[in-house]
Amino acid sequence: MLIRRFVTQSFVLFIIITLVVGGLVSLAISKYLTSYFVAQTTAIVHFMGKDHLSEIKDWNVPVRETEELNKMVKHLNELAGTGLESPMIPSKVARLNLFNPNRTVIWSTENSAIGKLFHDYPNLIAAISGTVRSQWGLYEGTEKAQTEVIEIYVPYRNSTTDKILGVVEIYWDASNLKVLIRKAQTATVTVIIVFFSLMYGLIYRLVGGASNLFDQRSAELVKSQESQEKAYLDIIKSLAAAIDAKDPYTMGHSGRVARNAVMLAGALHLPKEEQKVVEQAAILHDVGKIGIKDSILNKPNALTLEEWEEMKAHPEIGALIIASSESFDPKVLMIIKHHHERYDGRGYPSGLLNGDIPLGARIIALADSYDAMRSDRPYRRARSPQEALDEVNRGAGTQFDPLVVKAFLRVRDTIESLYNLEEGHSRSTA
């Protein structure tokens, strides 16, 4: 059970963690390589600007002399072809624009762009303020084919005054950079998956070992508990036998009451644990008679008022006996104490009324009375099945809980068949 729950929950968690970590790492790789590329571009623009951009005398008018700028683009492409002085990121220039501080293009690799004014261009505005900016985008060149590019905006400063003279905007063809990013991401995510798979396998083995040990200990505990419960039930039955032995007329009474009570509990759809409590209470319902004189228990005729009062004490005596042991469910004690209560409140010892009486006690009240009616006693012969049934029906709502009576009627044939079997066996062994 433990290993099955771990496999299900941990596998889902493993997938989630792998996806989250892989996503975060992929994003980090993309940001790192992009930042690296932007930093390289910035450094090269500053370096090449000394040779090529210094020839621009006035950044406020379009540049007519383009030889040096064309050389700059050529040199950029040459450098890009070898990976910007690093074999890591080969690329090429898709477009290059020079902006003055007024955001007007003074030179471009695309002649149609020269002289244009760009108003709302956040990256351009930031670069004019002195910040290098970049973004990914799509560029449609002269061949009307879209190319994924990285746009970089680099402020160009006067080497002497550090004043910003303009902005160099470069559109790098980023297809190679994208390939590199994807390769790095794939390799990293693969490493992450392998790592977490190994961790998952290790934890699985550890949990599997712990689970097997847990299952083994649980099985041993269940077996020990079952042995204890069997020994415990044997003690209960021995006590019941000792009680029944005090009166030859009640020999086997506790066992029959327990049998009847369990059948009634089942007919009332009580849970198995509750049925077990009812069975234990039924077996011990007369345990208090240990404290009653034999002369009263075996008296062949009617009891005097004083003797009856003493007999009526046996439920509370039984409850006190059960209370002295921690092995019994507290419900067993309450059922034994109140199994002679009546539904109409005229029973003993507490005179409880209908629903205030524990359900187990209401069940045993009927099971006990029915067995008493169907058994011989010193002062009378056993009643017939029909007589006993009539008495039960008359007692519904007064002596007995009507719901328990209905449950009895559903199992009465089965109960009576067992009495017939016992009577037949007694005659054959007499």
Q: Care to describe what's here?
A:
The longest helix has 71 residues, at 175-245. Strands 2-1-5-4-3 form a 5-stranded antiparallel β-sheet, with helices on both faces. The radius of gyration is 48 Å and the shape is rod-shaped. It has 430 residues and is α+β, with helices and mostly antiparallel strands. It contains 13 helices and 5 strands. Helices cover 59% and strands 10% of the residues. Strand 1 (92-99) and strand 2 (105-108) form a beta hairpin. The protein has helices spanning 2-52, 67-81, 122-128, 175-245, 253-267, 272-283, 294-297, 305-311, 314-323, 330-337, 359-373, 385-395, 402-429; strands at 92-99, 105-108, 133-140, 146-157, 164-173.
What does this entry show, briefly?
The protein has 430 residues and is an alpha+beta fold.
Give the amount of beta strand, in percent. 5-15%
Low-confidence residue ranges: 82-88, 425-430
Give the biggest sheet.
Answer: 5 strands, antiparallel
- Total DSSP E strands: 5
Kindly list the characteristics that best describe this protein.
430 residues, alpha+beta, 5-stranded antiparallel sheet, 13 helices, 5 strands, 10% strand, rod-shaped, disordered C terminus
Note the topology:
Layout: H1 2-52, H2 67-81, E1 92-99, E2 105-108, H3 122-128, E3 133-140, E4 146-157, E5 164-173, H4 175-245, H5 253-267, H6 272-283, H7 294-297, H8 305-311, H9 314-323, H10 330-337, H11 359-373, H12 385-395, H13 402-429
Antiparallel strand pairs: 1-2, 1-5, 3-4, 4-5
